[in-house]
Structure formats: structure tokens, C-alpha cells
Amino acid sequence: MTITVWLLGDQLNPTITPLESADHVLLIEAHAFAERHRYHPQKLTLVFSAMRHFRDELRDRGYEVTYLRAETFGDALDRYFEANPGDNLVGLHSPSHGADDRRRRLVEARDGTLTLVENDLFVTTREAFDAWAGEPDDDESRTFRQEGWYRHVRRETGILMDDGDPVGGEWNYDDQNRETPPPEWSAPEVPRFEPDGITEEVQAFVADRYDDHWGDPEGFVWPVTRAEARHALEHFVSARLSEFGAYQDALLDDEWALSHSLLSAAINLGLLRPREVVDAAVDAYESGSAPLNSVEGFVRQIVGWREFMRHVYRRSMPDLATANQLDQTESLPPAYWNGDTDMQCLSKAVEHVHDRGYAHHIERLMVLSNFALLYGVDPAELNEWFHLGFVDAYHWVTTPNVVGMGSFGSDVLSSKPYASSANYIDKMSDHCASCPYAKSKTTGENACPFNTLYWDFLKRNEETLRGTGRMGLMYSHVDRKDDEEWDAIQERATELRERAVEGEL
User: What kind and span of H or E run contains 204?
Assistant: First the structure.
């Protein structure tokens, strides 16, 4: 009996388990689906080009591949089942909420069947996380902490472990990973992949079909094949990993990539397996070519944070998508779309997303999400912006990171918000030196918006936040301010919001 494997655009790996016993593969390029969130042109180019290259790779490996371009998945399946009536399809579970049910309904409506199996493009399974965390309907298990999960995964997998103990004696090396590069430092060159005919064809299609989508279609640097992704991994390990740890939290005016891996898009497409990426980094440590603080920091992002986010999303949906425990209702200011602001840090972060569909994790959390949190942006609106703007974004990726962590829409991930004044950005960047706003001022003309809005945020949300255990220090500072200072803060906050709405921040 012929086994047909239906793979999605984020499952592009030739070694996934169902392919071991299949000879027929179905891939669907759904063009209307790509309009649901006005995705960044480089994201669309990346996905469509990677799918078409994967199609050709599978054919070279001897698979029969049906590749359908259509407006919708339903339209494509109509054509497929007309040619293959009653076919039985096999697929991988999708990490995105509701996707599996929608696919089943589409197939069954056309008298086919769809059997879904474990998605082995992750290091850990759903069952393993549930065994660690408790049953999903257990109220006491609804709040999860990444550090406990991270240590559990390392013990179970043996990654960076030595006879039951963490290699080096510590579970993390964050204290070594908060440096800023010296003035003479320059980042390693970013690997570039020259677009071939397939990618050029896709770029032209995207430019024509999705010409109203936000983001620059030019400057495409992302790997679209497994071979290119492997090259990108090798480049990271050999040229970037050694300094990744020390500078992973840094922000620089003239650098968008620093020593970051730039592998997230390839991993989320399936071009790279997370375990092979981790193993490559660990091998670099064991061979002496990369320090432990860099390797551990990178490993934590993959087997700790990425795996954790996937499971927390799965167990917290659908409520997490609309969570808004602080009742934030503001719309994103125009600066998130045009980058037109005197705030150097925010301008640079928006520029990076617009130009490349990418910003590194500190820009995402401590600039883009932090400002939106302090400003009062609706978490769902911020999540939408992240989802459409980043080449590595998927609903299961952005929702826990943006709604749960960055916006503090839910306490499922943290007991306190990631709220910060200008002090953090000044410590980790060179942005403040060239910014017209004064990093040391909270009130009055040219006071940094991060400072003003930080104290305004704490005051506005005092009823919700004061009683939490980890907010005591922040509110001890709140209590030291007198009425005159609070009046000045409120006046400045109101002014900043008015300017932000008018595009004059």
C-alpha cells in the first residue's frame, strides 16, 4: 500500500520518521494562507523557496512528490483527492494550536484519512514534558519555570553532563555572558547565500503577490536548503560561537547580528534538527575551540528555552493567545512600523526587523517588548507584529515569548514582568551615547521614555503587581517618590504617549 506523507512548510527535513517507510510526499504551497498576517516578504521568500528546494531534494532521493500551488489548502486537497480518491495521509503533529484539527477536517471532508504521528523535529516529546510538569488540567502545574525543565532535559539527555553533574560544575554561566564588546571589536562576517533560480523566481512572485506587506524584500541572507543550513551551522561554530556567550546580550548601533547564530529560521523550518545544532556546539567545547560559557548559553537557548516554549504554548492554549492580565489596551505606535523615532534603541531594533526580518533576543525582549509593555500595548497586537515581522516566527514561537514573557499577559512563564528603565539598555549597549534622550532623566524635557514609562507602568499596575514576591524592591523605590515627583512623571508620560501617537516620539 502506498503511504503518502503530507508535510508542512516547517517540516522540511529528509530524515523525519514517516519518510522512512514512505514513497510518496505531498507538499502544498498555499498562497492565501500567506496573507493571513501580512508576513514579511523575506519570511515568505524563505518558506516558499525552502519548500521548493525540499521538493527537488526529495525527488533526487527517489521519492515521488506531489507539489501543489493553490490559493488555499482546501483547494489543493480538492485537486489531490480528485486524483487520489480515498487516500490515507500520514503527517507530523504541528506545534501550532488547532492546526492538526483543521487539517483533519479538510482531509475527512474529502473522504480521506489523516494519521498524525509525533513531530520528531524537537528534542523532547509532549509525553516527556507532561510527565515532568503534571497533568495539563492540574491547576498547580499551570505555572512553569524554565530552569527546572532545562536541568531535567540535560540530565535526561546527557548534554553537557559529567557523571550526573553539569560540566564545569555550574548549570549556567550568565555572569560571564553580560559583556559589551570593546570599541575596536568587529563582528564576524555573516554567511551569505547567493539566490539561485528557484529563490529568484520566488522573490519575484512574492514582490508581485504580496507587495503591500511590511518589510524590505531585498538583502535576503537566509539558507533555503539543508546543505546551506549545514554550512551556516558550521560557520557559526567555527567563526561565531567562541564569542557568542560573552556578547549575546549586547546591543550595538552598527551591528545587527553580532556573534549570534542566525540559525533559528533554519531550525524552525526543519532544515536543521535542534539536537544536531546542540551536538555541534558541544563538540566545539570538547575539542577546545569554544569556551563553556558560550556553549552552555547556546545550548540553553535550544534545549532549554525553545523546547520549553513549545510545551508551555501547547498546554496554555487557547487562553494564552488572548491573555492580558494587566488590561493593556494601547495600539502600537507608528514607530513600530516606520522606525521614525529619536529613541536610538527602538529605531535600530525596528530597522533590523524591517530590513532583515530579524532582531536578536535582547532587542526582542528588552527593547521591542519592554517598550510596548511600559507603553501599555495590547499583548495580542504586539504578538501579531512579531508574528508577521520575523523570519523565524510561528504562532507557537511568538505567543509564549511575546504574550507570556514580554507582555506579562499571563504569569504562566514568570512571576514578574520583564520591565526595565533605560539603565539596562545603557549598560548593555552603545545606543544611549548617540541618543538625544537623556538616559539619566525621568521627567522634564528630553527625559528618556524608558525611564518615564517605567515608573508610570509600576504606578498604573500597582494593584496587580505590588503583592507579588519578586516586586518588593521595585515598589520600595515607588514608595520613596513624593506627590510632586509623581505629578511630573504623569505629565511627562502623557506627553510621550501623545507624541508617540502622532509619530513624533
Answer: helix 197-209
Q: Domain spanning 335-501 has what CATH number? A: 1.10.579.10
Q: Does 3.40.50.620 match the CATH number of domain 4-117?
A: yes
225 in Cβ contact with 53 (< 8 Å) = yes
Query: pTM of this prediction?
Result: 0.94
Element (H, E) at 229: helix 226-235
pLDDT in tens, 26-45: 999 999 998 888 999 999 99
Alpha helix positions (H), 331-435: 335-338, 344-356, 361-362, 370-375, 379-389, 395-398, 422-428
Does the domain formed by 126-307 have CATH 1.20.1250.20?
A: no
- Does residue 136 have a pLDDT over 70? no
Report helix angle 99-108 to 73-83, nearest 10.
Answer: 40
Query: Mind listing the pLDDT tens digit for each residue in 230-283?
Result: 999 999 999 999 999 999 999 999 999 999 999 999 999 999 999 999 999 999
Give the Å distances, CA to CA, from 362 to 123, 178, 215, 422, 429. 24, 11, 20, 14, 11
Please say if the pLDDT value at position 142 is more than 60: no
The β-bridge relationship of strands 88-92 and 64-70 is unpaired
Q: Count, in order, helices (H) and strands (E) of the chain.
A: 23, 7
For residues 207, 208, 211, 214, the Cα torsion angle rounded to the nearest 10 degrees is -30
Grid coordinates representing 371 are 517598550
Helices within 10-145 (DSSP H only): 41-60, 73-83, 99-108, 126-133
Domain(s) of CATH 1.10.579.10: residues in the chain:
335-501
